[in-house]
Every structure is written in C-alpha cells, then in structure tokens.
Design goal:
Chains A, B: Its cofactor is Mg(2+). Two copies of one chain form a homodimer. The first copy, chain A, has a single domain (4-297), classed as Farnesyl Diphosphate Synthase. Helices cover 71% and strands 1% of the residues of chain A. The first copy, chain A, has helices at 4-22, 25-28, 33-46, 53-63, 73-90, 107-110, 113-132, 140-154, 159-169, 176-202, 206-233, 236-239, 245-248, 254-276, 286-297, and strands at residues 100-101, 104-105. Chain A has a two-stranded antiparallel sheet with strand order 1-2. In chain A, a hairpin with a 2-residue loop joins strand 1 (100-101) and strand 2.
Amino acid sequence: MYDFSADSADCARAIEAGLSDYLTGARLSGPGPAADRVVAAMRHGALEGGKRLRPLLVRQAAAIFSLPKPAALSTGLAVEMVHCYSLVHDDLPAMDDDDLRRGRPTVHKAFDEATAILAGDALLTHAFALLSDPLCHPEAEVRIRLVSELALGSGAGGMVGGQMRDIEGEKGGFSPGEISIMQSMKTGALIRASVRMGAILGGADPRALSALTAYAEAAGRAFQLADDILDVTATPETMGKATGKDAEAGKQTLVSTLGLEGARKVLNDTVTEAIQALRTFGPKADGLRATARYFASREK
Amino acid sequence: MYDFSADSADCARAIEAGLSDYLTGARLSGPGPAADRVVAAMRHGALEGGKRLRPLLVRQAAAIFSLPKPAALSTGLAVEMVHCYSLVHDDLPAMDDDDLRRGRPTVHKAFDEATAILAGDALLTHAFALLSDPLCHPEAEVRIRLVSELALGSGAGGMVGGQMRDIEGEKGGFSPGEISIMQSMKTGALIRASVRMGAILGGADPRALSALTAYAEAAGRAFQLADDILDVTATPETMGKATGKDAEAGKQTLVSTLGLEGARKVLNDTVTEAIQALRTFGPKADGLRATARYFASREK
C-alpha cells in the first residue's frame, strides 16, 4: 500500500539534502567572499522550503519502470532548481513584488534585487549542468532528452511564456480558454516535463510516454485549479505567503469565472481524468495516483 | 590568406539570420498576442546588434578540425543567446541601469522590467533547447558535452559568478589579483566556453582541446582588457553605449591600477600568449589568430 505522506516526506528530505550538497561555493564557484554571495542567495531561494512535488513526480514516474529512487535524484534536483529560480524571479519587485515566500523573506529582501536576479539565473543554468553530468544517467542520449524536455517545458512555449501571459492577463480581457492556455504553460508545462523526464529516465516506450503525458497534463490542470481555489479559501498563515492576491489584482482565474463550487467540480473531474490515464500501469503507478488525489485535497 | 573583416561579417550575418529564424512566436510559443510579447522582447535583446564574436570563435575553433561553417551555426546561436540574455539582465535598473545598448533602448526601456527579466530567462533557456536538438550535432555525446560547457561557463563559477563579483568589487577593496579572477569569470568564461565548444564540435582530442583552452583564456583576458581601455579612451558615439562608467562608479580595473600605458603593454603580451598557444595548428588556426589580434586593435 503506497503511503503518500511518507514517500513525499522522504523525497523532500532527499531533495533538501541533494540541493544543500550541490549548492556550495566550493563546488560551484571559486574562492573568496564575493563568490559566496551568489551561492548563498541560491541556497536561500532553494533550501528549506516547498513540497518538492516536481521531483516527487519525476521519481514516481520513473518508479513505474522500476528505477530506484536514488537514480532519479539528479533529475529531480534539476527540475526543482528550475522551479525555485522561477519563484525567485517571480517574487521580484518588477514581477509579483512579494516580500514573503514560505514564511521567510524573499531572496531580493534577504539580499538585494541584483543578487536575486543573478541567483535565479544561476539556479536555471546549473539545472542544465546537473542534467549534463553522467551522474544523472549513464547514457548521453537519455541526458540530452532530459535537457530538451526541461528547456522546452520552462521556455517561451512553457513556464516563461505562461508567466508573460499571466502578466498580460492581469490587464483583463482573457477568456476562460485563454486562462486555461496560460495556466497550462505557467505551471502545467513544468509538471508535464517532470513526469516525462521521470518516464524518459525509466526508459518508457512511446506508448507509455504518451499515457504519462496525458496524466501529467490533467494533473497540472488540477494543481493550478487547487492553487486558484486556495488563493480564495486559505489564510496567509497556512500558506506562508499572501492570499487573495488574484482577486486583489483583478486577475481572472477559473474560480472567478466558474465560482468556487464550479471550480471544485472541475478539479474533481480533472483528477479522475489524470488517474484514468494511468489505467494500464498497475500498482507501480500508485504514487502518481496518490499525487493527483493530493492535488485536489491539499490545504496549502 | 584569412580575411578577418569578411569572415566576421559573414558570421554576423549568419547569426543574425539564424536568430531571426529561431526567435519566432510560431516556433517558440503558442498563439495569441501575449505569447508574442516575450518573443518580441527576446528579438529586441538578440537581433540587430553586436559583433557576434563568440559564435565567430565557435566556428573558427571548429574550422581547425575542418568542420564546415553551417555545422557550427546552432552552437554559435546558443552561445550568442546566452551572451544576449546576460546583457538584457545586466542592463536592468537593479544591475547596471543602462538605457542604451548598441545605440537603441535597452529591453526594459523598450518593453518593461518584468518583460526584460522574462526575455532574458527565455533566451538562456532556449540556448539549451538549441544544443539539445540533433540539428546542433548528430551525436548525443557531443551535444551533452556542449550543454555542460555552456552551463559551467555561464553559471556561478563562470559568467554569473563574475557578474556577482563585479558588483561586490564596486564597493571597493579588490586587489589586482581579485580583479583578474573576476574578469576571467565575467567575460573570460563564456569566451573560453565558445572556443572549447567549437573544438568539441570539431572532435578535438584532449591535447588539442587543452591548447585551445590556453588560447581562449589568454584571448578572454585580452578582450576584457581592451574593453577596460575603451571605457577610458572611446566616446559614447563610437561605442553606442555610455563610456567612462568604470571610473564614474569607482570601479577598479587593470587600467585604474596599471595606468593606460601599462594596460596596453599587458594587452599586447596577452595577445602574443594567445597566438603562441596555437603554434601546432598551422594555417587552419589563422581565424583564431586574427581574432586575438582584433581584440587588441578594436576601436569599439
């Protein structure tokens, strides 16, 4: 019987330790206090936080193909570093202008804006350094496919493009269809990349990769929908960040267009769709099933 | 007889055309005006400008191993996109706060800060997407080595780490040795990566790669030294950007510590060192020799 709480806590511990090990001045940069500053800011942006859901998806997808958990660690670290860089940059004054993240000062508050820009840039860059290392996977052919997945998932057709659309959408006038596209890019694309990267690590054939992609796209929609619902229903204390920001900013989400109950119904249907995409995989996909259910039930 | 002016102009044309072809909304992102905005900002930051010296180094290094110029194009585009992203982010108000770049408004002036941050992020990300594509090189083993070179050259131990040290150095107190380390990271690391990526594309053996690395490190020092000298001697009109900024900011360079004549002597010695590193390669290295000489003689 798969235990989501235990497995996700174990993954979070492994990622925390892996990030802490990788993000050191001795490994990443040269000697001297100036070199330590950008690494310290990278650590601030990456450590002590988050549910590490993307690395969890990487290793849950790889587990379908019996890949041991440690073999998915480097790939999980790379995906998490991209997620963390996006938060560091999104928090900047020119973007969402957030002072708090996970209950702590954001990187530009703890350091300064220039350091936060550079720390985000470096987290993104080193994600690709991690994937290029043979520790990630012994075969170059697999590693280069991971690079492609991560780059396309986080680029102008994925995460960054979604963030741009989100900013444009705040000016108003997005239809529900346009909101869906924006969200599928902003958060969906990296979730999709995480699942696909796990599958590629595990050596999935095209048919399995296609089923897992369908899972990931539904799970990504569920994740974003839950986030929009929590922005309305949760408190800043629970979330460790400001809530009610979407409404305050006049930002359109599926909650503002469908109402809270309508959005909850769509969320449940979407989780069901994600789980159905896994029907050929048997008990080895229980991890991914549990994560999709978690997306619908999470309280922060 | 190698013609530097003709070859560098040809390379700049190929890179301009290649960037313009790659940086389109239809290729990079989905439909709709919001998607076009980040791509338009990427184009503003990458097109119509620059001497494209890094892609020139890529193809000149590859030429030693008889690689045809078009086969070095994708790699050159990737290196140039990393260079351009670094300029877009360096120009931001929180960093160098520049309004002009190559005589045109910087990206955050032509668009806004959030868009400039995202466009820089996307240029960096898509550099790795380009390298992961088989169009770059048919062998995955070669492509993943290129990813590694580019990531390590532009990360916390390379370009971004150098930029962080540069900001710290403006507060004063850097010794000439610390200035050298900072410069070798800030501009030297990407020049080094460019030459090495060309050598890797060409299939250089370890001995040739080592000689080319020595060339690249000396050439990178020459490039930065020439830049520091031009900051003192050139006009904003010639450079298409503000000059005298180092002195104004109290920034220490080798010109401020050695004087103009002292710096010019070190520059000439450094170019000689770069050219000597190429002594085993014969006429196929004339391109790299000419580029090193160009670094010492350029007027903008």
